[in-house]
Amino acid sequence: MKLLLQSVFVLASLSFLQGCDQSKVAEKKVSTDVAAKAPALVGEALYNSDKAPNSQLYDLPKKVVDGVWSAIGATSPGTYANSGHNNNLSFVITSEGVLVVNAGANYLLAKALHEEIKKITDQPVKYVVLENGQGHAMLGSNYWQEQGVTVIAHEDAAHEIKENAFAILDVMKKRQKEKGAGTVVKMPNETFKDKKIIEMGGVRIELLMLGPSHSPGDILVWLPQKSLVISGDMAFHQRMLPLFENTDTAAWINTWEKFASLKANHVIPGHGEATNMAEVTRYTVDYLVYLRKKIADLLENGGGLDDAYNIDQSAYMHLPTSEFLARRNAGQVFTQMEFE
User: Fold this and answer.
1) Which residues make Cβ contacts (< 8 Å) with residue 324, sequence separation at least 6?
2) Which CATH number does the domain housing residue 157 bear?
3) How many whole angstroms separate alpha carbon 23 and alpha carbon 179?
4) Over the stretch 106-138, which tens digit does the pLDDT of each residue have?
């Protein structure tokens, strides 16, 4: 039974990997009350919405703080309608060049982002940083490399790309059809282990591996002068976070302490609009702690997997993707904690 369950999780993880594969925030903090009251897209509206119908991008880039912009992706998994743009494609503009975070889910999406960047600044893109090895982070790398841009990733993300990228590419092409044209697998030009510092135009950009979190090779991009962090999948708030077979939830909670110690005023998460630490704490580490406490109670009282599936997650069920992730997440935590 355990082997069967693990096989199901492996297949589900690979499939979902493809799907996981506000301006003026500096002047006005994001209101979490307003965000909480805003109706979440569900059903057809969630999976077939597109805020920028004349672009391959799901939505066009918006300024977060001076010098930092983000094209916020859909909160649904990657679909044909959103062209695979279901994660955040952010960029930092300096007087000596631009650094982009995430290559995009395919060649044409990367090209569309570049076209928008060129409308905002004359500075050339010099670096693309991959937040991890997932498809929507790395599959657009070959477009950027054709432009002479250096693509950087953590060494663990590079390993994931080497092992899984061709399978991920195949899934993307079947889903995106003609929108996936031109995409080929390319390895990063550079990798790093713990930290890489880029000084460009007087802006200090720190690429940080703080420890295990959502998936192998997850990194942060920290801009200390702006008190802004591009967190990647370290932090979630406008969609339910997915747990994979290789997600160590206990380690993620420990890594969060290092993340919180940055005391960032602005957070651009992997998915969803720019926000603050209180909001991502509520929907990331607090959620992980809650699930683990509930599973620990079950295990202590002889509960089984079926009981884990039925844990009350009502406080999080308003989040997009919760309808098919909540039970799966609980089962994943149960399977892991059985052997901790």
Assistant:
1) none
2) 3.60.15.10
3) 28
4) 999 999 999 999 999 999 999 999 999 999 999
Read off the tokens for 336. Answer: 């892991």
State the sign of the Cα–Cα–Cα–Cα dihedral 305, 310, 312, 315. positive
- Using DSSP bridges, classify how beta strands 89-94 and 97-101 pair: parallel, antiparallel or unpaired: antiparallel
DSSP one-letter code for 215: S
CA distances from 152 to 106, 190, 254, 264 (A): 17, 5, 25, 23
- Closest C-alpha among 142, 283, 290, 280 to residue 220: 280
Structural domain span for residue 329: 2-337
Strand partners, 198: 205
Number of CB atoms found within 10 A of residue 202's CB? 9
The answer to whether the beta carbons of residues 208 and 197 sit under 8 Å apart is no
Residues of the chain with pLDDT under 50: 1-39
Q: In total, how many domains does the chain have?
A: 1
Listed residue (187, 195, 95) closest to 150, CA to CA: 187
pTM above 0.70? yes
**By three-state DSSP, how is residue 8 classified?**
helix
